[in-house]
Design a protein that fits this description.
Strand 2 and strand 3 form a beta hairpin. This protein is of the alpha+beta class. 58% of the residues lie in helices and 18% in strands. Strands 1, 2, 3, 4, 5, 6, 7, 8, 9 and 10 form a 10-stranded mixed sheet that branches. The protein is elongated and about 100 Å long. The chain folds into 2 domains: 188 residues, no CATH class; 137 residues, no CATH class.
Length: 384
């Protein structure tokens, strides 16, 4: 081990209490940062997963107000989308309205005529069935759990839907789904796309094509390219539809960065103060070392090493300390059904915290290190 490292470690161990308290301060600051970052990251990931995890990233629809909300030759559009390497799933649908009436209840429904296999690749319908089967024959529909509970409907039972033209159509409830959205569970009805085309006079047409892309956060770029490829159609992406959500997440991230900056400043000031005092306390030893031939640059490196060690060791302790309140927080919410989102310390957060704290310690040691380099050995020993 180089002698600068040995001396740096000896200086730190000589002042055990001083070293302990600065390490404790750094650890607490890092622990707070880890705790808040984990919560903010968990909330953001949960919101994004609920928003884009099992839903459309990009939607293509008609841009012509006179087209009656229909895409002509949608099969050809699908063929082009299916060979696009950036798109992993594409599903056409025929959308319309219907009403479910019972006694004094009257609920407006959103009817989605779908190709089940394609739609399942986006909405994960089959894995979210709570009763019955995920099948949509010519006379079968799938309804949401909330709608089924409100109207006391069961899988296998019959239901009459009132169409916009006033006609009444009878269906069998093949299954009941839970897509984990109150709006969808309470108002969406899935049926076969061909049946929907006949009901709404859209034979050979689709109302929209929904898709998921490999890089959800680049959906805006991909939608711009698709708009150029399909000039007669309207192309929207999830970012446009969730602008307020993204703005809120951006504000959360800004708050997190602000906290990190303050923690960084606190770490730097703490280490700088301790090392400034150390330069004064160890001035005689430094003077002796210089008189023995140690250069000013080597003397300054001793304090740079101390700052680096303090920053790194404090960050490591802080990461361990930060895991404690996370676990207590997780245990405290377990009795009420849990958090509803992941609360883990991400590997990238650990790497960033270690790098930032270590760099802060190194940077904070710069001024004390420069002061040690300027010490006159003979004058220090004489004034000892």
């Amino acid at each position: 081990m180089p002698y600068e490292w040995k001396i740096a470690i000896r200086f730190l161990t000589d002042g055990k209490a001083q070293t302990f308290f600065i390490l404790l301060g750094i650890a607490v600051g890092v622990a707070v940062q880890i705790f808040l970052n984990s919560i903010i990251t968990g909330v953001q990931e949960n919101l994004l997963d609920n928003t884009i995890g099992t839903s459309s990233h990009i939607t293509i629809a008609s841009s012509d107000a006179d087209s009656k909300n229909r895409i002509d030759q949608y099969e050809k559009v699908l063929e082009r989308l299916d060979i696009d390497k950036d798109i992993i799933k594409a599903s056409p649908s025929v959308d319309g309205n219907a009403f479910l009436k019972k006694a004094d209840k009257d609920t407006s429904l959103i009817v989605k005529g779908i190709e089940l296999e394609r739609a399942d690749s986006i909405y994960n319908i089959k894995d979210r069935m709570v009763s019955g089967a995920a099948q949509i024959g010519a006379n079968q529909i799938l309804i949401g759990r909330d709608l089924a509970e409100e109207y006391e409907l069961e899988a296998g039972g019959a239901v009459n839907l009132t169409m916009p033209d006033g006609s009444i159509q009878s269906f069998i409830v093949a299954g009941i789904f839970d897509l984990e959205s109150a709006n969808i569970n309470g108002s969406w009805v899935f049926m076969d796309i061909m049946r929907a085309q006949k009901l709404y006079g859209l034979s050979g047409y689709a109302s929209r094509i929904e898709m998921q892309v490999r890089e959800p956060f680049e959906a805006d770029l991909k939608s711009a390219k698709l708009a150029g490829s399909f000039p007669g159609l309207s192309v929207e992406n999830w970012k446009q539809q969730n602008a307020q959500l993204l703005s809120a997440l951006s504000s959360q991230s800004s708050s997190s960065y602000t906290i990190q900056v303050f923690v960084l400043i606190a770490i730097a000031l703490g280490i700088s103060s301790v090392l400034a005092v150390s330069v004064v306390q160890k001035s005689k030893q430094i003077g002796i070392l210089k008189a023995m031939g140690v250069t000013g640059r080597s003397a300054s490196r001793i304090f740079i090493i101390q700052g680096t060690l303090l920053g790194f060791a404090g960050a490591v302790a802080g990461i361990g300390l930060g895991a404690l309140p996370l676990e207590l927080f997780r245990m405290g919410t377990a009795s009420s059904g849990g958090l509803g989102f992941s609360l883990d310390i991400k590997r990238e957060n650990i790497i960033i915290v270690l790098a930032v704290a270590t760099f802060a310690g190194m940077a904070a040691a710069f001024v004390p290190a420069r002061n040690s380099e300027k010490l006159n050995p003979m004058e220090v020993i004489r004034n000892g």
